[in-house]
Amino acid sequence: MARITGPKWGPRDGGAPKMIVFLLHGLGADGNDLIDLAPSWGNTVPDAVFLAPHAPEPYDDAPIGRQWFSLTDRSAPARLAGAQVARPALDAMIDEACATYGLPASAVVLMGFSQGAMMALYTGLRRAEPVAGIMAYSGMLIGAETLAEEVVSRPPVLLVHGEVDEVVPAAASRQAESALRAAGVPVESTFSPRLGHGIDDASLSIGALFLQRAAAGIPGA
Questions:
Q1: 20 exposed, middle or buried (CB, 10 Å; 0-12, 13-18, 19+)?
Q2: Which CATH code of 3.20.20.80, 3.40.50.1820, 3.40.50.720, 3.90.190.20 fits the domain covering 8-216?
Q3: Selected catalytic residue, list 106, 165, 192, 203
Q4: Which of 15, 47, 140, 208 gives a 20 to 30 Å CA spacing to 215?
Q5: Strands 133-137 vs 157-162: parallel, antiparallel or unpaired
Q6: Catalytic residue at 197?
């Protein structure tokens, strides 16, 4: 079973968490890349603990960094095979966190950036125990062509993408939006005109509102 390694933050006020927010990093980074988002979002959901796990594999192209799966081959079949292999590790991390904090999966939000967004979408839509929401920043929907047949749960999804993203084109999130709607998944999306492959202040504010709504649906949060 994959265990959670990586930084954590919160809850802001020091009490027992009522919500778990996973921050899933992109290719070649590690959990330290996203944990700095936690203090800002923690002001919106003060009862949340933020977990930024290191992905299970060492990065192919450098002596430092991690990856959820290899992107040496960037073809659609290779991405799908990689997500299929990586999914059990993320599922195990979610289950471990729920057991640690005594919370159900319905108290979990999966947030991911780039490859982390791909994993959040792929895993979150196929869990028998639905999570509270999925936030996908600068990502894409792997396995879109079979989603309608494979989707198990339909948590609300937020897609955020920069229009001038030079790594993952914004068209990927537009395609994801169409496929999610076709599969009956509630989705909202925002495309930032001057944003590249990153997260800006406006994106953070949009995420904060999404987390606030997700928390409103969690008993006691």
A1: buried
A2: 3.40.50.1820
A3: 165
A4: 140
A5: parallel
A6: yes
Query: Could you give the CA distance from residue 133 to residue 29 in angstroms, rounded to a whole number?
Result: 23
Please tell me the distance from the alpha carbon of residue 98 to that of residue 107, in angstroms, as a whole number: 8
Which of 146-167 are b and which e, b meaning 16 or more Cβ less than 10 Å from the residue's Cβ? ebeeebebebbbbbbbbeebee
**132-182, pLDDT tens digit by residue?**
999 999 999 999 988 988 999 999 999 999 999 999 999 999 999 999 999
Instruction: Tell me if residue 102 falls in helix, strand or coil.
Output: coil
Is-above-0.85 flag for pTM? yes
DSSP state of 103: -
Cα 103 to Cα 148: distance, rounded to the nearest angstrom? 29
Euclidean distance between CA atoms 137 and 22, whole angstroms: 13
Collect all residues with Cβ–Cβ distance below 8 Å to 39 and sequence separation of at least 6.
9, 12
pLDDT tens digits, 177-204: 999 999 999 999 999 999 999 999 999 9
One-letter amino acid identity for 195?
L
Domain boundaries, the chain: 8-216
Q: Which of 95, 189, 197, 200 is catalytic?
A: 197
Between helix 115-124 and helix 76-101 the angle, nearest 10°, is: 70
Measured CA to CA, the distance from residue 42 to residue 185 in angstroms comes to 26
- Which of 114, 138, 192, 203 is labelled catalytic? 114
138 a catalytic residue: no
